[in-house]
Design goal:
Layout: H1 15-21, H2 24-27, H3 31-47, H4 53-71, H5 84-96, H6 109-145, E1 150-155, E2 158-164, H7 165-190, E3 192-193, H8 209-215, E4 220-221, H9 225-230, H10 233-259, E5 267-268, H11 287-310, H12 324-348, E6 350-351, H13 353-358, H14 367-376, H15 381-398, H16 407-413, H17 427-432, H18 442-456
Parallel strand pairs: 3-4
Antiparallel strand pairs: 1-2, 5-6
Helix pairs in contact: 3-4, 3-6, 3-8, 4-5, 6-7, 6-12, 6-18, 7-10, 7-18, 10-11, 10-12, 11-12, 14-15
The structure holds arginine (ARG).
Length: 457
């Protein structure tokens, strides 16, 4: 079997070199976008008078059929045909001979693979957007389910101030919203057509790059052919976007793993999303959440991997770039699997209301509200901070809460304190007193929940 590029070679390729250089084992999943790109290319060639309308129809019909065979698992892949581009072109030539030999006119695998990758990435972004929206919706649905549930908010994993449970849920909704926006922004740079840059310099043939761009749904045409064959910026950017999504998933997984411990007992995970131990009969382990957290490694690793790959590559195409797909597919697959599972876990978990409630008065969650009460009465902030600090220490020594202190004792440390202090003491009161925009109290949270419902509808 002579190679498509075999014209100037006198020796057959060493089979070990074929095995070393092949990419079909991992780029075959590009077949759909490769065929889409080739059909647009053939359509353009006919429009430009470089092939006949009959040739175009012939080529497209057979490309279609080849695509169906690959989808059905009826297509044979061979290491000696290197990559997906060669496989499809070779199949076409085997079927329709000379007409098939015209498809690659005015095109190189360099602009072809860049086009395939951009089409694939664009589809991936659209798919991720749907998955992220599903997660957001699952969190927003929880806001109704857990309406009015008060939880401790933490900083440094120490009890800090109370917030509504819905405030936690919407915090994730915000993070995933930024992820969606980041991906949408990345999509703009993905959606610039490489096709027609040919190998590195363009072509002497009268191709119509605008037409292929339009047929493939690209917004514009990349303006420098040298840049096109070397550009993988869009992939670095894409996997970075994936990494932040993974980081957000991982934060969520970590938080829920902690909440699922006996020590916290804030949350019960559905049986279907936990696993048991082979030796300890009582165990229910949050393995799925742990793997969502753990898979983040695979996703994030793609960022340095791709940066290292492109660092110091000279213009234009270099075979190193073939490795880009491994990094991107690995990251995408890992993240995709986690995103698919997340909504069911979010929807199926149950907050342990009684457990949370039973310890809600622990940890002086109302201390900041008391300090702010004093500020409103005219006490300088730092003085209020110090005074409440002393009260907390006093309560700790006595084993009581701020709300247990009689008014006289409070007035001993600050005579501006009056009876209305009861309105901010106790965790629930401290929560109700929160009033700033974006805060964790009911006024703000209820508005945000309504807003998100509308935005995600
Ligand atoms: N399989 C190659 C890749 O993934 C396709 C481009 C090959 N181009 C070349 N000039 N050898 O990058």
């Amino acid at each position: 079997m002579t190679k498509a590029w075999g014209g100037r070679f006198n020796q057959a390729t060493d089979p070990r070199v074929e095995a070393f250089t092949e990419s079909i084992s991992f780029d075959k999943r590009l077949y759909g976008v490769d065929i889409r790109g080739s059909m647009a290319h053939a359509t353009m060639l006919a429009h430009a008078g470089l092939i006949s309308a009959d040739d175009r129809d012939h080529i497209c019909a057979h490309l279609d059929q080849i695509g169906e065979e690959i989808a059905a698992g009826q297509f044979v892949f061979r290491t000696d045909l290197e990559d997906i581009h060669m496989h499809i072109e070779n199949a076409l030539i085997t079927r329709i001979g000379d007409v098939g030999r015209k498809l690659h006119t005015g095109r190189s695998r360099n602009d072809q693979v860049a086009t395939d990758l951009k089409l694939y990435t664009r589809d991936a972004i659209d798919e991720l957007d749907k998955l992220l929206a599903a997660i957001q919706k699952a969190f927003v649905a929880r806001c109704d389910q857990d309406a009015d549930v008060v939880m401790p908010g933490y900083t440094h994993m120490q009890r800090a101030q109370p917030v509504l449970a819905a405030h936690y849920w919407l915090a994730y909704v915000e993070k995933f919203q930024r992820d969606r926006e980041r991906l949408a922004d990345c999509r703009k740079r993905v959606n610039v057509s490489p096709l027609g840059a040919a190998a590195l310099a363009g072509t002497t043939l009268p191709i119509e790059r605008d037409l292929t761009a339009k047929l493939l749904g690209f917004d514009s045409v990349a303006a420098n052919s040298l840049d096109v064959s070397s550009d993988r910026d869009f992939l670095v950017e894409f996997v970075f976007c994936l990494s932040l999504v993974a980081a957000h998933l991982s934060t969520w997984a970590e938080e829920w793993i902690i909440w699922f411990t006996t020590e916290f007992s804030f949350l019960r995970l559905p049986d279907a999303y936990t696993t048991g131990s082979s030796i300890m009969p009582q165990k229910r382990n949050p393995d799925v959440l742990e793997l969502i957290r753990g898979r983040t490694a695979r996703v994030m690793a793609a960022v340095p991997q791709l940066l290292i790959l492109i660092k110091s590559l000279p213009m234009a195409y270099n075979r190193d770039l073939q490795e880009d797909k491994l990094a991107m597919f690995t990251a995408y697959d890992a993240l995709h699997a986690s995103l698919e599972l997340a909504p069911s876990i979010i929807a199926g978990a149950e907050l342990q209301y009684e457990q949370i409630e039973s310890r809600l008065e622990d940890g002086f969650l109302d201390a900041t509200a008391l300090m702010e009460y004093m500020i409103k009465k005219g006490v300088p902030m730092r003085t209020g901070h110090e005074t409440v600090g002393r009260l907390v220490s006093h309560c700790e020594a006595r084993g009581c809460r701020l709300s247990d202190l009689p008014l006289e004792e409070l007035r001993e440390v600050c005579d501006l304190i009056e009876d209305d202090v009861r309105q901010v003491l106790g965790t629930r009161n401290a929560l109700l007193a929160l009033q700033s925009f974006g805060g964790g109290g009911p006024t703000s949270v209820k508005l945000r929940v309504a807003e998100w419902k509308q935005r995600l509808a």
